[in-house]
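Before surveying the methods themselves, it helps to consider a single example record, giving the amino acid sequence and backbone structure tokens:
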Amino acid sequence: MEHPYSIPNIKMTKHDYCEIETALESGWVSIGQRVDLLSDLCKERYGVKHALPCCNATQGLTIAIKAAGWSEKPIKLPSFTWPSTAYSAQCCSSPIVYGDIDTKTWIMKASSGFNNIVVDTFGSEAQTEYPEKTIFDAAHGWDNPNLGNRGLAEVVSFSFTKNVTGCEGGIILTNNNELARTARELIRLSARMSELHAAVTISSIASWDNELKDSRAELITAYNKGISKTHTKQQIDIATNHSVYGMLFDTPQETMKIAMSLATAGFETKRYYEPIINTKDLNSTRYVYDRILCLPVHRKAHIHQDEIIDIINHPKTKTPGKEFLTRRPSEDNSNTTVL
């Protein structure tokens, strides 16, 4: 694709490359000075007791579940999420109860009768009435105001698609001393972050703060003002970092027509999230997925924003038939329950 959906926010300086070279030459390439610096930076930034860098957010979420003592206990989580959320629960042998999302916020509400993994969908900050029963999948949550101080723990991703990236990596944020003690040991055994990834992450944080955050806000403003085609946007209850720009069109056919028009012009889009299970009993999840289209918001997307807006407002492709609509997830999904 000529214009990809994601471009990593990596703009390394000479100093950054020197940091990597120094780490390599030292022979100490894992959980060292730069990992500690990243931890301290996050603790100060979010006012949280413990910030535990790890190799990726999927491992971080798995470790958070284990450290919370939730292994083999039922966990409620949304079907409208990246598969890693469910994978982490499965790694802990925890039966999964799938909950529906809210049609307006696209976020699942926690339930008192379960341990819950609540997802900050597209970087929109979620909340919960049951903090002792909630772990937040805050993969897209970097820079939201209450990050690190919700629920038992929160797990942020530094993968290449996120606002802040280390190429790969993640971090567990928690104020729970016991959970942190167990998680720290599990990270040491199986999920260490390298000094190289920590150095890239620290550089990416600086880039986000100094440039990308404002640039992203300007792009979102341009999309909001320029797109006249009838659509519905995600309702933001608390705050968002605009990690993903998603919108719903009136029908699945209209969504695919616009997606195909953009693809013909060389612009890649995404339809987050393909539900993990068949959504026939999850009405809001199915409604959102059938109509959603997510636009590029990376650091170079503003160059083509006017062209993208014009294609959405005046799509050239014919309305597709049913054969073009994305397939449904399989109904064959054992050890799951739908709420």
